[in-house]
Every structure is written in C-alpha cells, then in structure tokens.
Amino acid sequence: MIISFQGSKVGTETLDVSEEPKNGSSFCFNKYRSEDRKSPRKIDYLPKAYQLVDSVEIDSLKRSLLSDITFEFLNLEEDSLFEESNGKILEYSRLKSDSVMLGRYYSYKAVHFTDKELLDSAYYYFSKAEKVFKDLGDHYRRARLQYNSAFILRRSKNFVQSEVLAIKASRIFESIDKKTNLYQVYNHLGLLYNDLGRYDLAISYHKKAKNLINSLQNQSRYKERTLNNLSLVYQKQGKYEEAISVLDEALENKELESLNRNLYAKLLDNRAFNLSLIHI
User: Fold this and answer.
1) 49-63 burial, b for 16+ CB within 10 Å, e for fewer?
2) Strand, helix or coil at 173?
C-alpha cells in the first residue's frame, strides 16, 4: 500500500501541464508519484490528474488511472474527492460492464468505512467485493477480501464468523503459495484464539506464522511482532518464564530500537511485567 502525505490536504495551485506529451492525467499522476514528498507542488498534481482523467481515450489507461487516483484520495483521507472519484469508478463499471472495477468500488468503500470505524458498513462492502471476485474466479483477491472481512469481524467481536472466513482465506493462500498473506492470516488466527481463550491453538498459529518469516521480505516487520504476540498467550496461561524467553528472542534484534521504538518499548514493558508476575 502506498501511503504518502498522510493527514495533509490537497492543494489548489494551478499547474501548467502544457508541456505534457500525450496525456494530461497520466503526466500529472506520474508527477505526483515522482515528486519528492517534501515538495509543495507534489500534492497539487493529484486533483489535476483527476480533473483530466475523463479526457483519456485509451480505456485500459483510463481504468488504471481512475483506480490509482481514487486509491490515493482514500489514503490521503480526502473524503469528498474520494467519494466523487469512487463514484466515477462505479459509473465506469456500469457503462463498461466491468466487474473488476465494480469490485474495486466495493473494496475502496469498505476500506473507507474501516478507516471511519463504521465496521458494519465495512463488512457489508467487503462481502459484496468478495462476491464479485468469486464470480470472476479471482481466488487471490477473493481470499484477501475474506481476510479483510475476518479482520473486521474480530474487531466487532464476531469471533466465530471471523474464524470461518480466516480459515477459508488460509486454504486459498496455501493453495496459491502466497506466503505473506498466509502469514497475516495465521497471525490473525493466533490473536483470535487468544481472545477466545483457546491458548493451544493460539500458540500453534503464532508458531506457524513465525515459521513463515524466513521466506518473507522485510522480515523485521514480522518477527518481533509475532514473538510479542506469542508472549501474550504465554502470559495469559501463566507461563511467565516462556513469555520472557520469547521476548528475549525478539530483543536480540539490536537494530529494533532505531527501527521501531514503539515496538521496542512494548517488548521491554511486557518483559518487565512478566518478570514482576514471577515474583508475586
């Protein structure tokens, strides 16, 4: 996911795009992507790209640009521009009978409602998107949407349905060898079973997630978080020494403090807490 200028607002500066060679919208969007994030002009290219997208004559390019622009508005939390642009995706999907674009419309709506903590609406649109990609036979996108729905349902305390969807997603990810996605589902199931007090299953899934880490890129993003989650299960079981052991393993990463201070502090706090429980 591309996240840039989080929390900032789209500007209103008028841009001269007369020098662009072929397509104003693609030129502006490419400038938005390539400009340094500190440049005051960067943010102004995105609404200009949106203004010009209707002039794009090549359907495949227009489709791609409209999706990318909408996704950026979503990340920037530019609600009015996001709603307008996503509405254009819906219009396009109906005009062209384009099911993929319809699925994207539902998916973007779902993410928008998730960001707004409107979980029932988020689940509704994730489910509608899943049906679209199921009908298309797109197993990867379907499984991702099942996982998203499972995530929403856990937050809504609907643990049973969350478990069902997560396991369905895991089977698809296993069958198509999507290890990063599979890691996410295993981690989710570990957290879910910890919520339910089914600690043996929670440990099993956290260990499955841990065993996948060596095959993933950016391993530091996953290993220490997984070990922290595993320590929380041991803590709930009253196995404080086991909790400390896995926390010590996470703290072996000497670069963690500089890479992720919040996680580093959390690991230290959890270790100190478990140590205090041993001496009660």
Assistant:
1) bbebbeebeeeeebb
2) helix
The token pair at 183 is 């890691």
- Burial (CB count <10 Å: 0-12, 13-18, 19+), residue 139: middle
Q: 280 pLDDT band (50/70/90 cuts)?
A: low
Which letter does DSSP use for residue 19 in this model? Answer: T
Q: How far is CA 96 from CA 25, 56, 118, in A?
A: 20, 15, 30
Helix (H, G, I), strand (E, B) or coil at 112: helix
CB atoms within 10 A of CB 208: 18
**Token code pair at residue 176:** 């198509």
Run of H or E including 274: helix 261-278
pTM: 0.85
From 127, 180, 176, 177, select the one nearest 151 (Cα to Cα). Answer: 127
Q: At what angle do helices 99-115 and 139-155 cross, to 10 degrees?
A: 20
DSSP 8-class letter at 38:
T
Q: pLDDT tens, 30-56?
A: 888 888 878 878 888 899 999 999 888
Percent of the chain with pLDDT over 70: 91
How is residue 217 written in tokens?
A: 């890129």
Q: Which two tokens stand for residue 209?
A: 């997630």
Q: Which two tokens stand for residue 19?
A: 């020098």
Rounded distance between C-alpha atoms, residue 18 and residue 257, angstroms: 48
Joined tokens for residue 141: 């996108």
28 vs 18: CA distance, rounded Å:
11
Structure confidence at residue 192 (pLDDT): 98
Q: Indicate if the pLDDT at residue 8 is higher than 70.
A: no
pLDDT tens per residue across span 159-183: 999 999 999 999 999 999 999 999 9
Mean per-residue pLDDT, 61-68: 93
